[in-house]
Design brief:
Helix content is 34%, strand content 32%. The chain is an alpha+beta fold and 303 residues long.
Length: 303
Protein backbone atom coordinates (compact mmCIF):
# COMPACT_ATOMS: atom_id res chain seq x y z
CA UNK A 1 0.00 0.00 0.00
CA UNK A 2 1.25 3.36 -0.95
CA UNK A 3 0.37 6.04 1.60
CA UNK A 4 0.17 9.72 1.00
CA UNK A 5 3.05 11.13 2.98
CA UNK A 6 2.28 14.81 2.62
CA UNK A 7 0.87 16.36 5.76
CA UNK A 8 -1.19 19.51 5.69
CA UNK A 9 -0.94 20.23 9.40
CA UNK A 10 -0.15 18.91 12.81
CA UNK A 11 -1.48 19.10 16.32
CA UNK A 12 -2.06 22.11 18.57
CA UNK A 13 -1.72 21.34 22.28
CA UNK A 14 -5.09 20.48 23.83
CA UNK A 15 -6.01 20.66 27.48
CA UNK A 16 -9.50 19.20 27.41
CA UNK A 17 -10.14 20.02 31.06
CA UNK A 18 -8.71 23.52 30.94
CA UNK A 19 -10.50 26.81 30.71
CA UNK A 20 -9.69 27.46 27.04
CA UNK A 21 -10.74 24.79 24.55
CA UNK A 22 -9.49 24.99 20.99
CA UNK A 23 -11.53 24.15 17.89
CA UNK A 24 -9.44 21.11 16.98
CA UNK A 25 -6.76 18.94 18.49
CA UNK A 26 -4.86 17.85 15.39
CA UNK A 27 -4.74 18.36 11.66
CA UNK A 28 -3.73 16.16 8.80
CA UNK A 29 -4.70 14.86 5.41
CA UNK A 30 -7.15 12.16 4.38
CA UNK A 31 -5.79 8.89 3.07
CA UNK A 32 -7.23 5.58 1.90
CA UNK A 33 -5.99 2.03 1.81
CA UNK A 34 -4.51 1.70 -1.65
CA UNK A 35 -3.89 -1.51 -3.57
CA UNK A 36 -1.88 -1.93 -6.74
CA UNK A 37 -3.07 -4.72 -9.02
CA UNK A 38 -0.22 -6.55 -10.74
CA UNK A 39 -0.07 -8.95 -13.67
CA UNK A 40 0.38 -12.52 -12.39
CA UNK A 41 1.11 -13.96 -15.83
CA UNK A 42 3.06 -12.67 -18.84
CA UNK A 43 1.35 -12.11 -22.17
CA UNK A 44 -0.68 -9.76 -24.33
CA UNK A 45 -3.34 -7.84 -22.44
CA UNK A 46 -6.41 -8.62 -24.53
CA UNK A 47 -8.85 -6.84 -22.23
CA UNK A 48 -8.76 -4.29 -19.39
CA UNK A 49 -12.16 -2.80 -18.62
CA UNK A 50 -11.30 -0.16 -16.04
CA UNK A 51 -10.85 3.58 -16.22
CA UNK A 52 -9.78 6.07 -13.58
CA UNK A 53 -12.70 6.84 -11.33
CA UNK A 54 -14.49 3.53 -11.90
CA UNK A 55 -15.92 1.77 -8.86
CA UNK A 56 -15.17 -1.96 -8.84
CA UNK A 57 -16.69 -4.74 -6.77
CA UNK A 58 -14.92 -7.60 -4.95
CA UNK A 59 -13.85 -10.48 -7.24
CA UNK A 60 -14.98 -8.49 -10.28
CA UNK A 61 -13.12 -9.58 -13.42
CA UNK A 62 -11.79 -6.49 -15.17
CA UNK A 63 -9.21 -7.85 -17.59
CA UNK A 64 -7.72 -10.82 -19.39
CA UNK A 65 -4.22 -11.81 -20.48
CA UNK A 66 -3.92 -13.99 -23.60
CA UNK A 67 -4.40 -17.67 -22.66
CA UNK A 68 -3.84 -19.38 -26.04
CA UNK A 69 -0.48 -21.03 -25.29
CA UNK A 70 -1.55 -22.10 -21.81
CA UNK A 71 -4.68 -23.76 -23.19
CA UNK A 72 -2.59 -25.70 -25.71
CA UNK A 73 -0.20 -26.85 -22.99
CA UNK A 74 -3.15 -27.87 -20.83
CA UNK A 75 -4.63 -29.98 -23.65
CA UNK A 76 -1.22 -31.62 -24.06
CA UNK A 77 -1.04 -32.46 -20.35
CA UNK A 78 -4.55 -33.94 -20.37
CA UNK A 79 -3.71 -36.04 -23.44
CA UNK A 80 -0.50 -37.28 -21.80
CA UNK A 81 -2.51 -38.52 -18.82
CA UNK A 82 -4.73 -40.54 -21.13
CA UNK A 83 -1.69 -42.08 -22.84
CA UNK A 84 -0.11 -43.09 -19.53
CA UNK A 85 -3.40 -44.54 -18.33
CA UNK A 86 -3.81 -46.61 -21.50
CA UNK A 87 -0.27 -48.00 -21.16
CA UNK A 88 -0.86 -49.32 -17.67
CA UNK A 89 -0.72 -53.14 -17.80
CA UNK A 90 -3.65 -55.19 -16.55
CA UNK A 91 -1.63 -57.31 -14.18
CA UNK A 92 -4.42 -59.76 -13.41
CA UNK A 93 -5.01 -60.63 -17.05
CA UNK A 94 -1.32 -60.81 -17.99
CA UNK A 95 -0.45 -63.26 -15.24
CA UNK A 96 -3.63 -65.34 -15.52
CA UNK A 97 -2.06 -67.97 -17.79
CA UNK A 98 0.98 -68.42 -15.55
CA UNK A 99 -1.25 -68.69 -12.48
CA UNK A 100 -3.27 -71.37 -14.20
CA UNK A 101 -0.12 -73.30 -15.15
CA UNK A 102 1.14 -73.01 -11.59
CA UNK A 103 -2.13 -74.28 -10.18
CA UNK A 104 -2.01 -77.29 -12.54
CA UNK A 105 1.61 -77.97 -11.58
CA UNK A 106 0.73 -77.92 -7.89
CA UNK A 107 -2.07 -80.42 -8.50
CA UNK A 108 0.42 -82.74 -10.25
CA UNK A 109 2.87 -82.22 -7.40
CA UNK A 110 0.27 -83.29 -4.87
CA UNK A 111 -0.76 -86.32 -6.93
CA UNK A 112 2.85 -87.50 -7.47
CA UNK A 113 3.57 -86.97 -3.80
CA UNK A 114 0.77 -89.36 -2.90
CA UNK A 115 1.82 -91.91 -5.54
CA UNK A 116 5.43 -91.85 -4.39
CA UNK A 117 4.31 -92.27 -0.80
CA UNK A 118 2.31 -95.34 -1.81
CA UNK A 119 5.22 -96.71 -3.87
CA UNK A 120 3.16 -96.45 -7.06
CA UNK A 121 5.49 -93.96 -8.83
CA UNK A 122 9.22 -93.33 -8.89
CA UNK A 123 10.55 -90.40 -6.85
CA UNK A 124 11.96 -88.76 -10.00
CA UNK A 125 8.42 -87.94 -11.10
CA UNK A 126 7.90 -86.07 -7.83
CA UNK A 127 11.22 -84.27 -8.24
CA UNK A 128 10.21 -83.16 -11.73
CA UNK A 129 6.85 -81.95 -10.40
CA UNK A 130 8.54 -80.01 -7.59
CA UNK A 131 10.93 -78.45 -10.08
CA UNK A 132 8.06 -77.45 -12.38
CA UNK A 133 6.21 -75.78 -9.50
CA UNK A 134 9.34 -73.90 -8.49
CA UNK A 135 10.03 -72.69 -12.06
CA UNK A 136 6.46 -71.49 -12.56
CA UNK A 137 6.45 -69.76 -9.16
CA UNK A 138 9.62 -67.84 -10.04
CA UNK A 139 8.16 -66.99 -13.43
CA UNK A 140 4.97 -65.66 -11.83
CA UNK A 141 6.92 -63.59 -9.29
CA UNK A 142 9.08 -62.10 -12.05
CA UNK A 143 6.02 -61.20 -14.12
CA UNK A 144 4.32 -59.52 -11.16
CA UNK A 145 7.50 -57.61 -10.29
CA UNK A 146 8.03 -56.42 -13.85
CA UNK A 147 4.41 -55.40 -14.34
CA UNK A 148 4.38 -53.62 -10.95
CA UNK A 149 7.49 -51.63 -11.87
CA UNK A 150 5.91 -50.63 -15.18
CA UNK A 151 2.65 -49.67 -13.47
CA UNK A 152 4.43 -47.58 -10.81
CA UNK A 153 6.53 -45.82 -13.44
CA UNK A 154 3.44 -44.92 -15.47
CA UNK A 155 1.65 -43.81 -12.29
CA UNK A 156 4.50 -41.45 -11.44
CA UNK A 157 4.31 -40.01 -14.95
CA UNK A 158 0.57 -39.58 -14.51
CA UNK A 159 1.11 -37.87 -11.17
CA UNK A 160 3.54 -35.47 -12.85
CA UNK A 161 0.95 -34.82 -15.56
CA UNK A 162 -1.66 -34.09 -12.88
CA UNK A 163 0.68 -31.59 -11.23
CA UNK A 164 1.39 -29.97 -14.59
CA UNK A 165 -2.34 -29.77 -15.27
CA UNK A 166 -2.95 -28.11 -11.89
CA UNK A 167 -0.15 -25.62 -12.55
CA UNK A 168 -1.54 -24.75 -15.97
CA UNK A 169 -5.05 -24.32 -14.60
CA UNK A 170 -3.65 -22.04 -11.91
CA UNK A 171 -1.80 -20.02 -14.54
CA UNK A 172 -4.98 -19.79 -16.60
CA UNK A 173 -6.86 -18.56 -13.55
CA UNK A 174 -4.25 -15.87 -13.00
CA UNK A 175 -4.75 -14.64 -16.57
CA UNK A 176 -8.17 -13.44 -15.46
CA UNK A 177 -7.56 -10.13 -13.73
CA UNK A 178 -9.81 -9.69 -10.71
CA UNK A 179 -9.97 -7.05 -8.00
CA UNK A 180 -9.58 -8.19 -4.38
CA UNK A 181 -12.05 -5.78 -2.81
CA UNK A 182 -14.46 -2.96 -3.51
CA UNK A 183 -12.80 0.32 -4.36
CA UNK A 184 -12.25 3.16 -6.77
CA UNK A 185 -9.68 3.05 -9.57
CA UNK A 186 -7.13 5.82 -8.98
CA UNK A 187 -4.57 5.28 -11.73
CA UNK A 188 -4.33 3.10 -14.82
CA UNK A 189 -0.85 2.14 -16.03
CA UNK A 190 -1.42 -0.02 -19.13
CA UNK A 191 -3.76 -0.26 -22.09
CA UNK A 192 -5.32 -3.10 -24.05
CA UNK A 193 -2.93 -4.72 -26.51
CA UNK A 194 0.21 -4.12 -24.47
CA UNK A 195 2.54 -6.95 -23.49
CA UNK A 196 2.74 -7.28 -19.71
CA UNK A 197 5.28 -9.24 -17.73
CA UNK A 198 4.72 -10.94 -14.40
CA UNK A 199 4.69 -8.33 -11.65
CA UNK A 200 3.94 -5.37 -13.93
CA UNK A 201 1.50 -2.93 -12.26
CA UNK A 202 -1.78 -2.65 -14.16
CA UNK A 203 -3.75 -0.15 -12.11
CA UNK A 204 -4.10 1.22 -8.60
CA UNK A 205 -7.31 1.27 -6.59
CA UNK A 206 -8.31 2.44 -3.13
CA UNK A 207 -11.09 1.88 -0.64
CA UNK A 208 -12.61 5.36 -0.70
CA UNK A 209 -15.57 4.41 1.49
CA UNK A 210 -13.57 3.61 4.60
CA UNK A 211 -11.06 6.45 4.66
CA UNK A 212 -8.95 7.84 7.48
CA UNK A 213 -7.13 10.98 8.42
CA UNK A 214 -3.50 10.69 9.47
CA UNK A 215 -2.61 13.20 12.16
CA UNK A 216 0.07 13.71 14.80
CA UNK A 217 -0.26 14.37 18.53
CA UNK A 218 2.17 15.24 21.26
CA UNK A 219 2.88 12.98 24.21
CA UNK A 220 0.85 15.38 26.36
CA UNK A 221 -2.22 14.78 24.22
CA UNK A 222 -1.51 11.07 23.91
CA UNK A 223 -2.33 10.44 27.56
CA UNK A 224 -5.97 11.30 26.76
CA UNK A 225 -6.18 9.24 23.53
CA UNK A 226 -6.63 5.49 23.10
CA UNK A 227 -7.59 2.99 20.40
CA UNK A 228 -11.31 2.91 19.68
CA UNK A 229 -11.82 6.43 21.02
CA UNK A 230 -14.42 8.52 19.25
CA UNK A 231 -13.49 11.72 17.48
CA UNK A 232 -15.08 14.42 15.36
CA UNK A 233 -13.41 14.85 12.00
CA UNK A 234 -13.83 17.92 9.80
CA UNK A 235 -13.12 17.85 6.08
CA UNK A 236 -11.86 21.29 5.09
CA UNK A 237 -12.99 22.50 1.66
CA UNK A 238 -11.40 25.94 2.01
CA UNK A 239 -12.96 29.36 2.48
CA UNK A 240 -14.17 28.25 5.90
CA UNK A 241 -16.34 25.47 4.45
CA UNK A 242 -16.17 22.26 6.45
CA UNK A 243 -18.09 19.02 6.73
CA UNK A 244 -18.31 16.98 9.91
CA UNK A 245 -17.86 13.21 10.21
CA UNK A 246 -17.90 10.77 13.08
CA UNK A 247 -14.52 9.11 13.46
CA UNK A 248 -12.75 6.52 15.56
CA UNK A 249 -9.09 6.12 16.44
CA UNK A 250 -7.95 2.88 14.75
CA UNK A 251 -4.17 3.10 15.00
CA UNK A 252 -1.60 4.85 17.18
CA UNK A 253 2.09 4.56 16.44
CA UNK A 254 4.13 3.11 19.28
CA UNK A 255 7.14 5.10 18.13
CA UNK A 256 7.65 8.82 18.32
CA UNK A 257 9.18 10.87 15.52
CA UNK A 258 10.40 14.39 15.02
CA UNK A 259 7.78 16.89 13.96
CA UNK A 260 8.08 17.67 10.22
CA UNK A 261 9.74 21.09 10.07
CA UNK A 262 7.73 22.21 7.08
CA UNK A 263 4.41 21.91 8.87
CA UNK A 264 4.31 24.26 11.85
CA UNK A 265 6.05 27.38 13.04
CA UNK A 266 8.67 27.08 15.76
CA UNK A 267 6.41 28.16 18.59
CA UNK A 268 3.87 25.46 17.64
CA UNK A 269 6.37 22.65 17.16
CA UNK A 270 6.94 19.87 19.68
CA UNK A 271 10.18 17.94 19.55
CA UNK A 272 8.53 14.53 19.27
CA UNK A 273 5.07 13.54 18.09
CA UNK A 274 3.09 10.32 17.53
CA UNK A 275 1.23 9.45 14.36
CA UNK A 276 -2.31 8.12 14.53
CA UNK A 277 -5.19 7.33 12.22
CA UNK A 278 -8.84 8.26 12.68
CA UNK A 279 -11.18 6.28 10.44
CA UNK A 280 -14.38 7.70 8.98
CA UNK A 281 -17.14 6.42 6.73
CA UNK A 282 -16.90 8.46 3.57
CA UNK A 283 -20.08 9.68 1.90
CA UNK A 284 -18.27 10.39 -1.35
CA UNK A 285 -17.24 13.97 -0.63
CA UNK A 286 -13.92 13.34 1.10
CA UNK A 287 -11.02 12.96 -1.33
CA UNK A 288 -7.54 11.58 -0.89
CA UNK A 289 -5.11 14.33 0.07
CA UNK A 290 -7.81 16.67 1.37
CA UNK A 291 -6.94 18.67 4.50
CA UNK A 292 -8.83 17.87 7.69
CA UNK A 293 -9.07 18.53 11.40
CA UNK A 294 -9.63 16.19 14.34
CA UNK A 295 -11.34 16.86 17.64
CA UNK A 296 -10.95 14.00 20.14
CA UNK A 297 -13.84 13.15 22.42
CA UNK A 298 -12.29 13.11 25.89
CA UNK A 299 -14.57 11.93 28.66
CA UNK A 300 -12.30 12.19 31.70
CA UNK A 301 -8.89 13.82 31.59
CA UNK A 302 -7.98 12.54 35.04
CA UNK A 303 -7.80 8.92 33.81
Amino acid sequence: MKKILALAGIVLLLNACGNKEKEYDATGVFEATETTIYAEQPGILVRLNVEEGDIVAPEMEVGLIDTTQLWLKLKQAVAAKSVYQSQKPEIGKQIAATRQQLAKAKQDQQRYSELVADGAAPSKMLDDANSQVEVLQHQLDAQISSLTVTTNSLQRQMDAAYVQEDQLRDQLRKCHIKVPAKGTVLEKYVERGEYVSTGKPLFKMADTEGMFIRAYVTSTQLRNIKLGQNAIVYADYGDGKKKEYHGKVTWISNRSEFTPKTILTDDERADLVYALKVAIENDGYVKIGMYGEVKFVVYDCSK
